[in-house]
Description:
The protein has helices at 18-45, 67-81, 84-89, 94-105, 112-146, 150-165, 197-209, 225-237, 257-270, 275-278, 283-286, 307-310, 343-346, 352-357, 377-381, 385-398, 409-415, 439-442, 463-470, 478-482, and strands at 50-51, 110-111, 188-193, 217-223, 244-249, 292-296, 300-302, 319-322, 372-376, 420-423, 447-449. By secondary structure, the chain is α/β, with parallel strands linked by helices. It has a seven-stranded mixed beta sheet. β4 (217-223), α8 (225-237) and β5 (244-249) form a beta-alpha-beta unit. The longest helix is centred in the N-terminal third of the chain and has 35 residues, at 112-146. Mean pLDDT is 78; it is low at 6-19, 41-65 and 326-336.
Amino acid sequence: MKVQIxxxxxxxxxxxxxxxxxxxxxxxxxxxxxxxLRAAFxxxxxxxxxxxxxxxxxxxxxxxxxxxxxxxSEWRRTxxxxxxxxxxxxxxxxxxxxxxxxxxxxKDQIDLSNFALKIKATLLKMEHRTARAKLHSSYFRHVASSxxxxxxxxxxxxxxEEYSINSLARSSLPxxxxxxxxxxxxxxxxxxxxxNILAAHVAVKSAVxxxxxxxxxxxxxxxxxxxxxxxxxxxxxxRVYPAVLEVKGLHQFEWxxxxxxxxxETVRLSKTELVLDYLKIHLPQFFPKLEKVILLDDDVIVQRxxxxxxxxxxxxxxxxxxxxxxxxxxxVTASSLCINERFDYYLNFSNEIILSSLRDLHxxxxxxxxxxxxxDLRAWRRSNITEIYQFWLKKNQEHELKLWxxxxxxxxxxxxxGFVHPINSSWIISNLDKIQTDSNxxxxxxxxxxxxxxxxxxEISSPCLRQIWRAHLNSSVEFLRSCGVI
Length: 486
């Protein structure tokens, strides 16, 4: 059975409105509630008459009298009476609240209970709006980092055209006499899911250059139908001899009926333009004849021989991953003590579903890292990891996407729990946009993982990181010059 999967990825011209939205939302979330309360108190002091529910006491804040104590009592009780209708009818901002209070006070005295209820509803409404603003800004950052900027979009179009008119661009990948290598367990198999031609080029080229046995490397590039022709043309005209490489579009895979249905279910549940990320959970089905693979993200530079990782004994576990140690850098911030992030960065532990169902996952523990991972596909096939992953994708859909952050990793942390073998932290350095270091020190690291939003092919990345990444591009290639990539 051949399953057709169309790409939902959109080539979006990069914009950066989120750069000002993020600090604005954070500052607003901290300062507005404080300013709101202070201004409300000033308005009260200026002449708003408030009458407690039991008696009118001429209540004044910060003055002698017992009304303030009653107000605090009313304040604590308002949480029990709060409902959605009250939140919807609450003033949208500080000015509206002051105007409403003054309007009421000009006609009659305000009941203290109603005043406490209204001020808390207004604060909660402002808090919800700030949370939504932070969510939107996070989404914009996600779109900006995952979108294809104009030069890369130009490159994809030009290479796709080249595929249609140039027989060299359509030549077989790999050469026919290398086909047996694609399933030979004696070779080192590296898988990359990507629609980014240049990112794939840098990851592959750096891995080949760092290998002591390049002829033993076999790369499997999985891409979508839209990017397939350009991706194939690039690697057909820029071979990575003596390594072997294949480029395969999602539309070219054939699965059994059961496997095909499972893949389609993941595509349906992901509901995202980054469908390639979520399809990593089907590695055993993509490569049914392979026993072991190394999975690389496309946003990496490899500076160490992958053969060392290939020899690692996973001891019956499914995945080898860097877990819980520091970068050992001098200028790492205090919040970055993990190679990646803590579990509570990815999973919403304030949600009862996460708390009650995942008692063996601790929010303050470091999550394992993507970027470079090794998988025992035989052990994976004996487990129900893929089914658990899909179960939690459904759960997240049922709870309006409130269980975790976007992306492949959060549900993977749940599905692979108990199947992770730790690998040495020297294998990867992540969160590069948070680390202040020079290019010479980064060159000594094993694998550089540009896992933040500031991807090195974007103009928003630091000049230092962009320079390191672009060093792996050949400036003499006409396609790169004509599209303004370099």
